[in-house]
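Open question from group meeting: does this chain pack into something compact, or does most of it stay loose? Before anyone orders reagents, we agreed to write out a predicted structure and look at it together. Recording both the input and the output here so the notebook holds the full record.
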Amino acid sequence: MAYLISDDCTACGTCIDECPVEAISEGDIYKIDPDICTDCGTCADVCPVEAIHPA
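Structure tokens returned:
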């Protein structure tokens, strides 16, 4: 199961630098590609607004 980024995302960029498989893309609200996400949880661990959760 991939992680999802909620509307609470502030597009700060912290998660992009942490993703080991580059599954996160930029935007007003960042998106995680479920086909690439390995469910490692690193992005959720570093999100300062806790906007990233398991699907």
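Observations to bring back to the group:
Strands lie at 3-5, 24-25, 31-32, 52-54.
The CA atoms of residues 25 and 31 lie 5 Å apart.
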